[in-house]
Amino acid sequence: QGIEKVEYAVTEKNFSPVLTGILLRSKKSDEGNKLTFVGTDSFRLAEFKTDSIGDNNDFSLIIPKLTVTDIQKIAEFAKANECDEIQIHYSENLVAFQANIKHTKILATSLLIQGNFPEYDREEIMPKNFNTKILVDKNLCEKAIRKIGILTRDINNFIQIETDKDNIIISSGKTSKGAGVTNISAIIEGAPVSFGINGRYITDFIRVMKRDELLFNVVDKQKPLIIEEKDNTQYKYVVRPLINS
After folding, report:
1. What CATH number is given for 132-239 in this structure?
2. For tag attachment on the chain, is the N or C end more exposed, with fewer CB atoms within 10 Å?
3. Within 10 Å of residue 151's Cβ, how many Cβ atoms?
4. How confident is the model at residue 245 (pLDDT cuts 50, 70, 90)?
């Protein structure tokens, strides 16, 4: 589940090798052992946290995106066979994921990417305080973005989102194919706001959501915004806004 939640934010081609992989980090805290999955391409970042079973040591591993498909297959096969536990074994250069199903061990192994993953948990990258919160139905939001996206494919899927009383207005601005605008109902708390964003980034997040409502946490039109599922603090998606030139 953790890999599925973050792998779409990773690109296989990047100027920095560490950004072509998924960060897997285990860390002890007062709340118990936490396992964190992180993926980023420097324009967006997805983070998913879950509980870790057992008394694990702290570790930080970067797994190539090219190999995560095999790991996902093991997890799906284990779940289908009522095995809820995946063991992680690692060395300096190698990681192995193991599922024990009916006295049979199933393994997926991968070389690790060497290097230091960016320290992303900083206010300028992952804000903690927001001026506006926008709650929308994910299906209505996806439908509206795809409708406007027909016009914006040639301009980095740029869309403009603006609050308006109990609605958000989603528009394309002027494009070579014309201009489009639509609106959907929303619950809005805080100051009015307008920001540009890559619409495909939002639909990527919606695709892996399990809940029905989508929450935008916005500082202003220039700072990164955090997108979440309603009432789910385990999963955060950070996106840099776009400026329409």
Report:
1. 3.10.150.10
2. C
3. 21
4. low
- Single-letter amino acid code for the residue at 193: V
Burial 42-55 (b: 16+ CB within 10 A, else e): eebbbbbbeebeee
**String of DSSP letters for the chain:** -HHHHHGGG--S--SSGGGGEEEEEEEEETTEEEEEEEEE-SSEEEEEEEE--S-PPPEEEEEEGGGHHHHHHHHHHHHHTT----EEEE-SSEEEEEEEETTEEEEEEEEPPPS------STTTS-S--SEEEEEEHHHHHHHHHHHHHHHGGGTTEEEEEEETTEEEEE--SBTTB--EEEEE-EEEES--EEEEEHHHHHHHHHH--SSEEEEEES-SSS-EEEEETT-TTEEEEE--B---
User: What is the CATH code for 2-111?
Assistant: 3.10.150.10
Q: What is the mean pLDDT of residues 89-99?
A: 89
In tens, the pLDDT along 124-155 reads 999 999 999 999 999 999 999 999 988 888 77
pLDDT tens digits for 57-81?
788 999 998 888 888 888 888 888 8
